Amino acid sequence: MNAPTRQTETLTGLALAGRSGTWDMTLGEGRIVSLQPSQQSGGGFVMPPMADIHVHLDKTFTIDRMPRRATSLFDAIDMMSEDAQRWTADDLLRRAGRGLSRAFAHGTAVMRSHVDWLHPEAPAAWPVLCELAQHWQGRVALQLASLSPLDDLAEIGPTVAKAVRAAGGVLGAFVYRNDDLERKVAGVFDLAETYGLDLDFHVDEGVEPEARGIDAIIAETARRGMGGHVLCGHGCALSVRPPDDVARVLEQAAAAGVGLTVLPGANSYLQDGGTGRTPRLRGLAPMHEARAAGVPVMIGSDNVRDGFYPYGDYDLWDVYRLAVLNGHLPHDDWLDAISDTPARWLGRDLTLREGGPASFIRFDATGPGDALSRAGTPRDVWHNGTRVPGFQGETS
Predict the structure, then answer these.
(1) What CA dihedral angle connects 246, 249, 250 and 251, to 10 degrees?
(2) Nearest Cα residue to 49 out of 390, 346, 321, 352
(3) What is the separation of C-alpha 204 from the centre of its chain, rounded to a whole number of angstroms?
(4) Looking at 82, 182, 205, 208, which residue is catalytic?
(5) Can you give 243-276 as a three-state secondary structure string?
(6) Residue ranges in the chain assigned as alpha helix (H)
(7) From the CB of residue 380, how many other CB atoms can be counted at a distance below 10 Å?
(8) Is 121 a catalytic residue?
(9) pLDDT tens per residue, range 280-301
């Protein structure tokens, strides 16, 4: 009896991220059967799936409930705190599910969402997002990170850390010009060591050079030997510190193994804000300098359609476009910041290779520069050899 015919499909003349020339990609049984140099061109630009390492699914899609535009980071925090009073399980499930659906349709395969945690008991969003993580398993790998004010963790930290460990999550803290900073940061690392957790900080999210929480975090990471397990998000204050000072900090971060997440959307929107004036300071962390120093640099969506950032659609490619423009990034040399680097940080491998999953994004473009030049460039998202359909509802 003859064996069943193995059905394959070949995409020809592809420009592949990180590779020169054009390529033919043969797909079969959900895998990449072969990648071979091509004699053709015009097949589109292909890159790996994206990894969004910094989002806030608990806050998302609340902008229509906001009374006005936030004038600062702390104004946005106050506005979101008021809105959180109306968060129910159904409301959270609908909004966060909508975010995951849109992220998947745009080509995101890995995601870390921060969840505000202000009291000893778990917030309403935590069990909802744990449920969604299970529901989306196999499509979007969702990891959760608690987010608590640094000053509160001395009291609620052990309870939070136990729950985070049970969910396979990450412990997070908001650090900004706290009193007794070094001792409190050390306390967060104590929790991480006790409960076996990685750390993800919101740190120095402002354009005040006196904000130096990242220094304490880097020093403590080096002291504990926790390289590869500590991520710092924002780092806006580095944009206004003296260049020699910044160079020293980044050199120490690289030596300690601390990663940096840059959030060009919300930071550009909230920093140096005010009515009736044009902002001068954009709060963009020194991306070029960090990478040159050897720091793993990642780009994340951060907030989507809430009080912190009223725009976005969980399209990390659109965020990358914003980073390229604001940060003067070589567009073909930073793709790893939205794919391979954050994926590896989260323990995933999104590399396109023979024998690997046939999961990728194909743009109707000649390369990344062409795709970025047209905001509406058509794209196909492939997941395990099958094209992903468009949005399928808010909680699908």
Answers:
(1) 120
(2) 352
(3) 17
(4) 205
(5) HHHHHHHHHHHHHHCEEEEECHHHHHHHCCCCCC
(6) 73-83, 89-106, 125-135, 150-166, 181-195, 213-224, 243-256, 264-270, 287-293, 316-327, 340-345, 368-373
(7) 15
(8) no
(9) 999 999 999 999 999 999 999 9
**pTM beyond cutoff 0.90:** yes
Q: Kind and range of the H or E element at 294?
A: none
pLDDT tens digit sequence for 13-55? 999 999 999 999 999 999 999 999 999 999 999 999 999 999 9
With CA atoms as reference, report the closest residue to 293 among 259, 265, 326. Answer: 259
Cα angle at 137 between 160 and 300, to 5 degrees?
65
Alpha-carbon span 161 to 276, nearest angstrom: 44
- Check residue 393 and give its pLDDT: 43
Contacts by residues 330-333 (CB-CB < 8 Å, ≥ 24 positions apart): 331/368, 331/369, 331/372, 332/17, 332/367, 332/368, 332/369
For residue 138, give the 3-state DSSP assignment: coil
Q: What pLDDT does 4 receive?
A: 41
Cβ within 8 Å of residue 197, ≥6 positions away: 161, 164, 165, 169, 170, 171, 191
Beta bridge partners of 174: 149, 202
Segment 267-280 shows an average pLDDT of 90
Distances (CA, A) of 100 to 81, 84, 90, 135, 140: 23, 20, 15, 10, 8
